[in-house]
Amino acid sequence: MAAATTTATALFLCWRALAAFAQKEKENLVRSLPASLCTWRVPPCEDDEYEIWQSLAKTLKGAGLTLWDSSKTSAQRSPYGSDVFPNGYLHTAAIRGTDKKQAGAVATLRHLWPTNASSHVVRTREGQDAVMRVVAIGHEGRDQLRIWRKLATAPHALISANHTLPLLQEFDLEHITFGIFPLVAQPMEDIYGRWAKNSVGDILDAVMQALEALAYIHSLGIAHRDAFKYNFLMQWHPESLLTGSVAVSRPRVYLIDFEVAVEFSGDSVPSERVCIGPPCIGSLSDPTRYSAPCIPEMCTGEPYDPFKLDVWQLGTSLLDFDSTLPPVQAVLQAMASLDPAERLTADDALCRLRAFLENVPPKSLLIPP
């Protein structure tokens, strides 16, 4: 009996020592990670992005998450060159097929070039590929995380007019919270002027979905404040100009990146639903470092309507799109107007585009921009 008690005590002490070591190792890991969202997005040194995520590999592996292969050039590749897991959020046009040399083909889905260091693709133990992104550190980003949770989980995530990319799960590492989101195929930024051969009809369908996305979050008192087209993703590009026919299936457009979003209470009056200054990320609060296009009010420090800012940002990023259709161009120009009184709301812009397109034969939109 005494021997058994001694053995049990020894095992307990060994377990406690291992637990203490693991906790110490975890604390050291957390201390080595960026202390703010800003420094995580843009590390001081170019090589730091690779080192940051590699330092997390062991911890994530223990949670059933395997990092995609990466390099110091920021390119990320699916493990062992395998195909991505079909998840309903990413596809490629049939005309592009599986040819490895073909832009937009299935093989290209195995690669990703994130726009900043705050996200990395992971593969779950079930084989699902997803994007893992740091969304809050300490108190920083918590308000935006609450907005993300509201829009990207049930019940709002089940509403068809809500185009916010769903939040699949959260992963906490001490005071750092990561969000895990579905991997989506294509950025809306590529919808014209690049490799994708989308028709005017394809592009306008995506634009209306983007406006529907904004109209929905605005109806809940939420303004995105970074609604340029690079923050919208698409399941695939229809490329009707290649097929020569109007697409049967339409890709869904998703809104991402709520790190500078704001929410107003339902009982607030319109005069209270205003912002002042550029939308900056927590520690990146110096207005002189805000590099995105600005409405005039941002520069003067005057209050502005953040809901119309969203529409202006989307409209501004579409100024290089020429639909060759005067009614459409008039709406796009009104969205991007520098005069606050002329700027449209998301709902107004959507209604005007829809009213025009309802009377236009889809075949007539099978034209290049």
TrEMBL record:
GO terms for biological process: mitotic DNA damage checkpoint signaling. GO terms for molecular function: ATP binding; protein serine/threonine kinase activity. Residues 53-369 form the Protein kinase domain. It comes from the Eukaryota. Residues 1-22 form the signal peptide. The keyword Signal applies. One of its GO terms (cellular component) is nucleus. InterPro entries: Kinase-like_dom_sf (IPR011009), Prot_kinase_dom (IPR000719). The keyword Signal applies. Keywords: Signal. This is Protein kinase domain-containing protein. It comes from Schizophyllum amplum. The lineage of its organism: Eukaryota, Fungi, Dikarya, Basidiomycota, Agaricomycotina.
